[in-house]
Design a protein that fits this description.
about 70 residues, about 70% helix, mainly alpha
Length: about 70
């Protein structure tokens, strides 16, 4: 994986990466032909969306209730 320079390894940069990853996951699920997915691919997509949703909610929590 590509390493960020120390100046870019901030909490805000990490949050941007998390947001961008969730956005890409959602975009990929929107363009997928759900009717054409085999059951295993559908399960993988659902798990990916669940993971992205969980991470997005954690990200929001960090902004709403920062520690």
């Amino acid at each position: 994986m590509h390493e960020l320079p120390d100046s870019e390894q901030t909490p805000l940069a990490a949050q941007r990466v998390r947001r961008d990853t969730a956005s890409r996951t959602l975009a990929a699920s929107r363009i997928a032909d759900l009717a054409a997915l085999d059951p295993a691919a559908a399960i993988l997509m659902i798990e990916s969306l669940r993971s992205s949703l969980d991470d997005t909610l954690q990200l929001l929590g960090e902004h709403i209730d920062p520690c």
